[in-house]
Amino acid sequence: MELYPREWNDFGDRSPQDLPAGAADRDLLEKSVKRTLLHEGRIVRLEEDVVELADGSPARREIARHPGAVAVLAYDRGADELVFVRQYRHPVEKVLLEIPAGKLDAGELPLDCARRELAEETGLRAATLLPMHSVYTCVGFSDEVLHLYYSEDFRAGESRLDEGERLHTVRLRPEQAFSLLAAGRIRDGKTQIALYWFMAYRRGSALPPESAE
Hints:
The protein is α+β, with helices and mostly antiparallel strands.
């Protein structure tokens, strides 16, 4: 007897898909019974849901609603350099090495946001952006979806940071970035995902991204 649907093994369309709930997962599902708004912030909305579990018992879930975000791994093939930013992140009180990223504005498409954020943070104007992955960043308490893009096709320009935003642009050869990653010196999750994908892509063991345009 098959516990899981056959389509779980079919990733032919290359687009990120949630795994469907099979018959074996019915006891895992939850139904929202009541929702309470706890806080409305500039970026996130905090809610508390009362849910009914499959056995009928109640439970509470705190959820941070997020508009979604993008991140871009930019590779200068001529210089053999990857483009990063160094930025202070107050929640962890550390300066982190990251790929350029930012949240979606209301009604903004991920592709447009990726092009805007790359230009604002690094000055790079991307002619082509290729979708890499879309991931849930922290499913334990947030519905945020992060859309990752890859670009080798861009030109230099002037950066235009948001008010209150401070960062430094850093260029590293792939081997330097991989060494930092292996040494545990790149702690940002989206940047780790992008670099592991890029390592596989260079080896030919990752699917090539398809143009978003």
